[in-house]
Each structure stands twice: as structure tokens, then as C-alpha cells.
Specification:
The protein has 14 helices and four strands. It is mainly alpha-helical. The chain has a two-stranded antiparallel sheet with strand order 1-2. A two-stranded antiparallel sheet has the order 3-4. A hairpin with a 5-residue loop joins strand 3 and strand 4. The two termini are 30 Å apart.
Length: 423
Amino acid sequence: MKSVRLIAKAMVLPFAISATSALAVDKSAVLDTYANIAAAKYQDSLIAAQSLQASVNALLVDPSAEALQAAKEAWLKSRIPYQQTEVYRFGNAIVDDWEGKVNAWPLDEGLIDYVDTSYGGPSDENEYAALNVVASPKFTLSGSEIDASSITPTLLAETLHEADGVESNVATGYHAVEFLLWGQDLNGHGNGAGARPWTDFAAGNACTNDNCDRRGEYLKAATDLLVSDLEWMAAQWTEGGAGRADLMADQDAGLSAILTGMGSLSYGEQAGERMRLGLMLNDPEEEHDCFSDNTHNSHYFDGLGVQNVYLGSYVRIDGTVVSGPSLADMVAAEDASLDAEMRGKLSATMMALGLIKTTAEAGFSYDQMLERGNAAGETLVMGGVNGLVDQTRSIERIVAALDLDEIEFEGSDSLDDPEAVFQ
């Protein structure tokens, strides 16, 4: 194994320091800031997805290497605001009930399109793991004959997504689009992402791997569906939206929702299922953005989402800032030392996630970090895991300090019962 030099940069973070720390902070004002930031994040996610949609349409009208690269870059940019919304999961039922449409993973990509022979075929766990809808205008699903001669958003959302009740049958969302743009990453623990050729979308004799027209249909349908799903969620956080109304209906329940999202994303979801589990299994398929090798960014912006919710300040994609009375202000009014502790731990986590990000950008990719025996990689990943776990302990203290009902955060066997991972 070649030695790797870890590279860190100073990360510029959007801290919001309020002058209200010595005053009682109005709960409704804190909830309003939280909802305003949600509205801005989902609107930014929609704007970025619409840019992706335009790039995909351009690719399909005139396929080329340059057009495929432009669509990939638009997908990468679209992940920046969306990952910062994940802190709204767990505490807000409207987000949890919807999120699987847009960000479900991991997925059995053989459901969608051709895969390498090493991928295998149907399994006891998933009969449709290698269905290949792109190559199959008709197929049988759960005993019913399906007409897939036209690949539409309705077909993807209502028939294919989580087909037969199998969660890995992911037919929609960011990762379905990601797979169609990049193809499989066959590099294992080696550096490099998927390498789908642009000719997979070409017409006539230039087409590679067959069914280029249907592959384009699937890509367009999945992208259009992503945009419409984000349009719906963005509307839920505007004035009069259901997400905002649910949050504001009970102030203490609303504060609990904020802290549930912060703690569950930090602990069970990110530290556990997205980071520690992959390291324990030494499996590059456990990367969150496994086709594009963008996992380092997804981890970073997940962490940033937790931080900007606590601080009540979010930097939009156009550079403007949405901010207001924050949970940090409320905690500082109750216990200034606890607020300082929370800020410090969030900062430490962001430095650890930032180190993963900058090191990956320098050429030591996240799937290399997961390789068994790679001490440098393990140190990097566990730095992020430990920071996330540590900040969760402070979130638990905040729940107690604000005299809220006890909250049970999402857990993960990788953290809570490591032996169960291998059973």
C-alpha cells in the first residue's frame, strides 16, 4: 500500500453569533428560523435539480463527451444543497415519508440497466436485482405483466421503486440518476469513479451497450421526477406549507424535532450506517455516492447541515444568507458553557469531515479509505465518526437543558452492537 499524505485546508464555515445570548429567546422565533432555512435549502435543491434537468436534456438532444460531463457536474452541484437538508429528516414526518423517493441507497443497479458480469443475478433477497428495465419493454413483476414500452416518471415511481417491497429496488432519485450518468464503479478500492461512455446515449450505429434511446428515456424520467418531488417539498416549507405548519403547531415538539434530526443524522445515520459500517465491512459499495466517488462531499455537507441548523444560519447557493434567532441562542441563554461546548464539537466534526473531503480531492478517494489494513484511511473515517458521536452526546445534554421530553435518536449496529454486523 502506498503511503498517503493527509491534506487539510482551512474550512470557511457560516457561524452566526447572536447578541441575544443573555436574553430569553422566543421559541416561535427559533422555529421560524428553522423553517425559513428549510425553505431556502429545498428551494436551492430545486434550483440545482432544474440545472441538472437542463443539462440532461442537452445531453439527450445532442450526446457528446462534453454534454455527459456537463450533466455529471450539474449532478455534483445538486448534491451540495440537498445534503444539507438531511438534518430535517427523523424529526419531521413529512420529510421522512418523502425522503426515500429522492435519496434512497444503496441500490441494486441491475434493476435499471446493464451491469458487469461480476455483479451476478437475481438473489433470494431480490428477485429483480438484474431485471434491466432499460433492456426490457415488457416484464413480469410480482406476478403481473408490466408494459414498460415507454419509460415514464409514473412507471418509475408507482411500479418500479421498491418493487416487490424490496428497499434496494431503488428506481428513482439522485442515485438512480447518478448510476445512469456514471455507470458502475468497477475500481473496487482503487481510485476512480464509474466510466459510462457518452455513446451509451448516442443514436444509431454510434450507440454502445444497446438500448440507448430507452436509457435516455429512463434518465429523463428519473430527472424530471426528481425535480417534481423537490418542487413538492420546497412548497411544504413556505408560509402555509404543511411542513412549516406541523412544526409550529407545538413549540416544544418543534424543538424536539430539530434536536431529533440533529442527533439521529449525526449518530445512527451518518456516523453509523454511512461511515462506521462501511469501514467495518471494508466495502466500497457502502459509499453513499458510490458511482460518482462523491461520498466525501456528501458526508461533509451532511455535517454542515447539522451545524447550520444549530447556529441558525445558512449560506444559499447564490451567496445570500438566511439567518435568525437560533437554537444556539436558546441554549446560550440557558447554559452558556453548553452552547460553547456544542459549537466547539460541531467545529471539530467539520474539521474532521473537511479533512476527509480535502484528502479525497487530493487523490486519496473515499473507497480507498475503506480498504482493509489502510491505517491512514481508517484514521480519517474514524475521525469523522468520533466527531459525530461526540457531538451527539452534547445534543443529548441540550435536550435535558431545555427540559424537553427524552428523545431516542436513530441507532446503528455498527456503533451499538458491532458483533451483530457480522451475524
